[in-house]
Write a structure and sequence with these properties.
mainly alpha; 70% helix; globular
Length: 120
């Protein structure tokens, strides 16, 4: 039961942050700031597979999908996937998560984009 409440809380927090970004154009900048917050990027100078995801989510909250895709091309898919997973856990339907190869396909897409970002 606690996991369901925590998942619902996280989903609500994500939606609220995106709504705040939509209402206040400077919210995304103040949340992210100019300093990289990714530990891998800070330590190695190499972006992790999710670098740009927060900025992309904030851009989507402002309705700027062009900027969101520039920050991270999979941002809309990952954001929808995270909200879906949190909703599944909050509803207590975790058996749905174990079906099929959807998680592996998404993970493969994230790794492919990460590799392409190194090449480009």
């Amino acid at each position: 039961m606690a996991a369901r409440i925590i998942a619902a809380g996280w989903a609500l927090a994500i939606v609220v942050a995106i709504v705040i970004a939509g209402v206040s154009p400077d919210a995304g900048h103040s949340i992210v700031g100019g300093t990289p917050r990714c530990p891998l990027l800070l330590l190695t100078g190499i972006q992790c597979p999710f670098c740009g995801m927060t900025r992309a989510s904030m851009a989507m909250g402002r309705g700027d999908f062009h900027a969101a895709l520039a920050y991270h091309p999979l941002a809309p898919v990952v954001l929808a996937g995270v909200l879906f997973l949190l909703a599944v856990v909050a509803l207590g339907r975790t058996d749905v998560l174990l079906r099929g190869r959807r998680p592996l396909i998404l993970l493969g897409a994230i790794i492919a984009v990460w590799i392409l970002r190194f090449v480009l």
